[in-house]
Amino acid sequence: MFHNIDTNIDIQTGKLSGNIIESEKHISGLKNVFKDETARSQMIQDTLVYRVQMHKAEKEGKEGGLFFGTSFVYPGLVGNEYFMTRGHFHSKIDTAEYYWCIEGEGVLLLMNEERECYVEKMSPGSLHYIKGRIAHRIVNTGNKVLAVGACWPSDAGHDYNSIEKDGFPVRLVCINGEPALMKEESQEGKKENEEQNRS
Q1: pTM
Q2: By C-alpha distance, which of 108, 54, 102, 100 is closest to 82?
């Protein structure tokens, strides 16, 4: 007996249709995510930075299930920093995830619990296995929409709070029209500079 399929994917673009959940992140909802908060606050606040489509065939938190989705990160800059996702660890920190690039060009920024970072270039067809205990963030370094497919355990959860609190120690910035990694100043370094400025 055939079962009706309630969700479809356009394999060329990654767009989902049917039984899906969608969310969007605009400039207004990304306070303190980018380095230059002044530049962000002065931008058109309803500028779309990224959106996510998800198909959840299982309940959130169900052990043994899978979720499927596509993230679409738009091209743009805040100051000289490329548009990107907030980034997250998984709440169930040992859980892994697959990403694959469908369209566009970008960088997958990865960070372990010791705050050591490495990056992987994303281009159409690239496949990325993200191990457990690794935070991940998608950065669009191109001039068109970056579409990235994902599959992850339905009990993985998302820990955004630790990234909101401590961030990533590196950022992707545009220098002379090309992407470059920039080290973020540590919290200790910021405190030292503040003390020096006061003295």
Answers
A1: 0.92
A2: 108
Q: Residue 41 and residue 19: Cα distance in Å, rounded?
A: 35
Higher pLDDT, 40 or 189: 40
Residue 107, judged by CB atoms within 10 A of its CB (0-12, 13-18, 19+), counts as buried
Sign for the pseudo-dihedral over CA of 92, 93, 94, 96: positive
Instruction: Tally the domains of the chain.
Output: 1
Residue 108 and residue 99 in contact, taking contact as beta carbons nearer than 8 Å: yes
Between residues 18 and 192, the one the model is more confident about: 18
State in Å, rounded, how far the first CA of the chain is from the last one. Answer: 78
Q: Which amino acid is at 104?
A: G
Segments forming the whole domain that contains residue 56: 7-198
> How far is CA 176 from its chain centroid?
24
What span, in angstroms and rounded, lies between the C-alpha atoms of 87 and 139?
10
Segment 107-159, tens digit of pLDDT:
999 999 999 999 999 999 999 999 999 999 999 999 999 999 999 999 999 99
CATH number at residue 110: 2.60.120.10
